[in-house]
Amino acid sequence: MARPSEPLVAGWGRTPRSRPRARHRLEPGLDADFAQVGRRGLTVRGLGRSYGDAAQNAGGTVLDLHSPSDAAWYDETNGVALLDGGLSLESLHTWALPQGWFAPVVPGTCHVTMGGAFAADVHGKNHHHDGSFAEHVDWIELESPVRGVVRLNPGDDLFWATAGGMGLTGIIRRLALSLRRVETAYLRVTTNRMASLDEVLDGLVAADQHATYSVAWLDLFGTGRGLGRGILNTAEHAELADLSRRQTRAPLDYSPGLRLALPDVVPSGLLMPTMMRAFNTLWWRRAPHDDQSVESATSFFHPLDAITNWNRLYGRRGFLQHQFVIPSTEVGLLRHIIERLANSGTAGFLAVLKRFGPASRGHLSFPGEGWTLAVDFPAKPGLAGLLDEIDDLIAGVGGRVYLAKDSRLDPKHVPTMYPRLEAWRELRRGVDPEGLLTSDLNRRLGLTGPRGRSPRIAPRQP
Q1: What is the model's pTM?
Q2: What CA–CA distances, in Å, run from 417 to 322, 384, 396, 402?
Q3: What phi and psi values does residue 335 have, to the nearest 5 degrees?
Q4: Over the stretch 72-117, which tens digit does the pLDDT of each residue have?
Q5: Which range marks the domain in which residue 393 is found?
Q6: Does residue 33 share a domain with residue 102?
Q7: What CATH number has the domain bearing residue 219?
Q8: What does DSSP say about strands 351-356 and 370-378: parallel, antiparallel, or unpaired?
């Protein structure tokens, strides 16, 4: 039985929550003590930005990987950085940007560890152009119960089993990441207000050909001719000539900017559909047509990080983020889902539509060629049935749900959504036959076998 003194652990959505038996920090340079793992196994946790239960372990051990470790050059000439698995993206940019280097793939928050980014094979606004995070990693050092610490490169099957493997193949201790050379810490951004879903879709398809970064915010409270209206942003890394005189004084300065904090109790009225509809309408109307601006990397990539605990906006019940990808040919289904969400009135402020390029190579990596939509939902009764209905439609066309965001997917869909699951299981058994590496996500979805069980999960003797 879990000790009452051990605090509850939750993902960024604040639901569900579970209590581990023990929680420890893994310091750089020290080996993990797999011999002391008990019946409920071990879960590796970074900065806790997975929205659901991927980094939780009810009744088991949680091993915190995040640490204020340093970055170093592995090959400075070619921009290959040597990074600890517990290093945050924010720390990477604090070190690399003043030297003229930037991460090749940037997710929606800077509060993600390098190990977590690889384990989830995160993507950014440039997947159509540059692929996912793992495509830019030269090698990883993986620590597993059977093999200890081994170095793997993209020629190793276990490398791709670990990319998107949600921490279930081992602990990512270090990796070598190929960075992008930049002249400044700014982006040249084009903003376009779109009056309909058709305009948004056409704009994103066009951006595949000319923009490194592209993303669209959708108003899911729009109906009729305004269904799916949104704001399209495209961007390129700014050159010195694009900057103002003030900006050229420190063109490579990386600053997280001013950050605010919310109280733990946010007025429930903020979550009422009428309030969210009014906010979305105002947000859409204030957006310009074909506006050009120069924004800091923080402002463009991580606007929500300006509020350190913005997840409290949804109250103590928390929220779910549902993200799926479907093939490019399924525009009709995408439109149907957006219409279904708009009519339901269940969505929150955030609905983001992007384009994915070719599928990532990881066995359980999420990105596949097509459309990806991420939507926040306040946690409330009746939501499960709607999302189950949508998941059935997604699975039926070869789409999938993002495991790093998930907390409620029906396990029956996993083999269909991730057809390389059995091959992944076989690779995983080679490094963890006793099933010591697990999580609430694994048990709920049965990733490693029926209900997440491996052949034997039992205490090991030192």
Answers
A1: 0.94
A2: 15, 19, 9, 10
A3: -60, -40
A4: 999 999 999 999 999 999 999 999 999 999 999 999 999 999 999 9
A5: 186-413
A6: no
A7: 3.40.462
A8: antiparallel
